[in-house]
Amino acid sequence: MVKIILRKKEYEVRPGMTLLAALQKIDVLVESVIATRNGEVMGEDEILQDGDEIKLIAAISGG
Amino acid sequence: MKCRMCGQKAVVNMRQHKLALCKEHYLEWIPTQVERFIAKYSMFTREEKILVAVSGGKDSLSLWDILTRLGYQADGLYLCLGIDEGLQYSNESQRLTEKFAAERGLKLHVVNIQQETGATIPELARTSLRGRGKPCSVCGLVKRHELNRMARDVGYDVLATGHNLDDEAAVLFGNTLTWSVEYLLRQGPVLPGAPGLARKVKPLCRIYEREMLAYALLRGIEYIYEECPFAEGATSIYHKELLNRMEHDHPGAKLTFYLSFLEARRSGLFSGPEAIRQELHACPKCGQPTSAPGLCSFCRLVEKRKVDAF
Question: With contact defined as beta carbons under 8 Å apart, do B262 and B168 qualify?
């Protein structure tokens, strides 16, 4: 499985799908985050591998 | 997804521009765009001295990085607001800002609000009716006053802030919902200077917030990721989320919204009655312009705090 982390939330998706498809699956807008794997910025068409841990970094800030 | 410039693997895809770029070309492309907007909106020249308002966040540190890469004379100004809330928020953002400046040999001014006014932002907010318990309104007032004071007193030609397109679109959206014409008239990439008021510019105003995040990450800029503890539930964040939903369904919607507004304003849509154009007076205490005769809002706040503390 692939673990996706966004702030304090964790999601699991099946490997083999693209990052973009995984974001749609967990209902996170690609416009709102940048994904990193092992500290490297990922392209949205990259395929998620079994055991991957993807960290989503929120773009939105404000106040 | 391949980089349009070199065909290597792209890491950033910008649907609104139909443009995907690799790390190397993205890090070249962003400063080129910023340079283009600085020129387009006549923000400043290489001969002028720029004061960059830096908070320790991704946008302001990236702006400072970009301006220095482009060869502008840009110093930083950090305001220590005294926000802790169990997170050491101000201390951590100051540490990251000072580290950024030290590693690059840049000049950083630090103003401690508690030393200047006798109270931290949360303490000042408790003495004020502004914001009904949330310090954001007081924080904005104090920041505007102190940024302008430093730009004016230390002799800078222009004050630059890291507002990105999402910031601008969210403010515009909020002001459009209430048809706040007075605010709409003042919003733009450049707020011209006036006696006592520094010229203010927003060189990132056409760059999406996600693109600034990508720039900070790809450049290895260490910034404060944690949100200000008082920003939770902020209307501006809600507006940004709504706009991103539109952007998802219609790439370019945010940019079009902002640019159409600028064009509408330029062509006179908001040239309302003269009554909404305020006459400015000098505050007798600090000398900064204020809309009504007497002490400005900042000086009134500080005076009230002194009375309450006594």
Answer: no
pLDDT at B248 over 50: yes
Mean pLDDT, residues A48-55 taken together: 97
Query: Of all helices (H) and strands (E), which one includes residue A26?
Result: none
> Using CA of residue A58, residue B203, residue B290, residue B285, what is the dihedral sign?
positive
Would the CB atoms of A36 and B217 count as touching at under 8 Å?
yes
pLDDT digits 0-9 by tens, B132-146:
668 899 999 999 999
Residue B275: per-residue pLDDT: 44
Q: Show the tokens assigned to B105.
A: 């040999």
Partner-chain residue, chosen from B9, B212, B244, that has the shortest CB–CB distance to A29: B244
pLDDT band at B50 (very low <50, low <70, confident <90, very high): very high
* List of chain A residues whose C-beta atoms are within 8 Å of the C-beta of residue B1: 43-45
Angle subtended by helix axes B58-69 and B89-104, to nearest 10: 10
Residue in chain A closest to B217 (alpha carbons) equals A41
Q: Which residues pair with B73 in a beta bridge?
A: B49
Q: Which of A31, A45, A57 sits opposite B247 (nearest CB)?
A: A31
A-B CB pairs within 8 A amount to 72
Q: What is the ipTM of this complex?
A: 0.96
Across chain A, mean pLDDT equals: 95
Pairing of strands A2-6, B190-191: unpaired
To 5 degrees, how large is the angle CA A35–CA B34–CA B154? Answer: 110
pTM of this prediction?
A: 0.94
Among B26, B81, B217, most A C-beta atoms within 10 A, so best to mutate, is: B217
Judged by a CB distance cut-off of 8 A, whether residue A34 touches chain B is: yes
CB burial string B166-176: b at 16+ within 10 A, e below: bbbbbbbbebe
Q: Where are the beta strands (DSSP E) in chain B?
A: 12-14, 19-21, 49-53, 73-80, 108-112, 158-160, 190-191, 199-201, 281-282, 289-290
